[in-house]
Amino acid sequence: MENQVWSLFNEALKKRVGTASFNRWLSQIKPEKFHANKLILVCPNKFVLDWVKLNYYKDLVSSFQQVTGNEVFIDLIFSPDSNAPGNDKGKHFSCQLPLPGTERYLVGLPFINREYTFQNFVVGPSNQLAYASALAITEKEPRLYNPLFFYSTEGLGKTHLSSAVGQKIYSTNPDVKVFYTTAEWFTHEMIQALRKNNILEFKEKYRKYCDVLVIEDIQFLQKKEKTQEEIFYTLDTLIQMGKQVVLTANSSPREISDLKTNLKSRMGSGLVVDIRPPDYETKRKIIAQKCEEENMKIPGDVADFIANTIKSNIRDIKSAIIQLLASSSLLGRTIDLDLAKETLKDFIQNRLVKIIDIQNFIAQQFKVTPEQLRSKSRLRTINYPRQIAYYFCRKYTDSTLSSIGNFFNRNHSSVLRALNQFDISIRTNRGVKDAVTLLTQKFEKTYF
Ligand code: ADP
Ligand code: MG
Q1: Dist. CA 234–CA 205, nearest whole Å
Q2: C or N: which end of the chain has fewer Cβ atoms within 10 Å?
Q3: Is 286 in the pocket of ligand 1 (CB under 6 A)?
Q4: What does pTM read for this prediction?
Q5: Distance (Å, rounded) from C-alpha 211 to C-alpha 347?
Q6: Which residue owns the Cα nearest ligand 1 atom 25?
Q7: Which residues surround ligand 2, an ion (CB under 5 A)?
Q8: CB-neighbour burial class of residue 429 (10 A; exposed 0-12, middle 13-18, buried 19+)
Q9: Ligand with minimal distance to 161 CA
Q10: Residues paired with 39 in a beta bridge
């Protein structure tokens, strides 16, 4: 890439993210190649790569667009040479070739991510069937499961597995043309083709020149009848010719509403597999694998905390580990449970706290009994902690005033009155305010 473009790009980026962030993270990135609207950037190590991807990916794309007027797909890789000694895990990232024939079509898409392979997919009871079927279609011909349809909620490995299929098939036979797209992109392309009067070319591209077709996020097709029709004929043609089709969505074909019946049954005519949230053991394995990839060690209780806290999204588990590594390196602190609790607050904010947890916490802090809190007593030593308990119930649970009242043997208007009074106390009485701040910190440390 021309030097001038690179420096303009850096300037734009600096403006967008601020000098401090730029210097800390983005100044270390170097351009590797710019070709066919795909920009390859090299990060000094895996950690910087993950952090930049997580936090600055959109800024990179927008800044590049701002400078060149081009929509671009950015691929981040890291240089294994500058990685910590002994870690050669990432070597294959940078030397793998792009999928043939796909580059032209995949501009602007989060297309096949070369980090998503079968080797680094952790298998457990929740995804075993999905894994085995994905692997099977890369190994045997004629294709046994066609189409292969994966569905799950967010972040459970649909993109990982479907990308792994594409890469594996391509790596065993580079003449195979693997097309990876999303339902959204397919629709967009089709509309463009209609507008430019080259719909025939578009149809041919998918029906004639493609050996393996991956289309993700099929739920996007809801209500889009024209695209549904086009996809139906494309799938039909490909499957009849013995080409492999892999589809993903957030629910099974039958459950996606506003999808034509013939398309539903076409999509469901091969093998439909769901991926469920990982169990505890699988989560621990994923955490261990991610830490190894990042060359980091975390104590067992921290791994335990992450596995217990993040219920069902593997993407969140991986980001949590990156966040933790970042806080530890930025604050110069060792990775322990305290740091984990502070850092991962965002991930656990929606963890449910129950009124009884609040009652027990407040009782313990004020050395009163839970029964006293629920009693009719109006003594200040009981009434004051009770008010704080109400306040916490409003803050940390979504309980209604009546259910809080029920719990503490009051009616809803009495809780409301107490809360209003307490609000005034917090604003006017420094002692109350400090006490609430302190208790909040303690409470969040214990429960989040
Ligand atoms: P989805 O497409 O279902 O929303 P992704 O495939 O994008 O989910 O997965 C989200 C993140 O979790 C990715 O970083 C992916 O590598 C990771 N991931 C998902 N399942 C696994 C697994 N079984 N083993 C290792 N990493 C996984
Ligand atoms: Mg996905």
Answers
A1: 10
A2: N
A3: yes
A4: 0.67
A5: 41
A6: 121
A7: 158-159
A8: exposed
A9: 1
A10: 34, 74
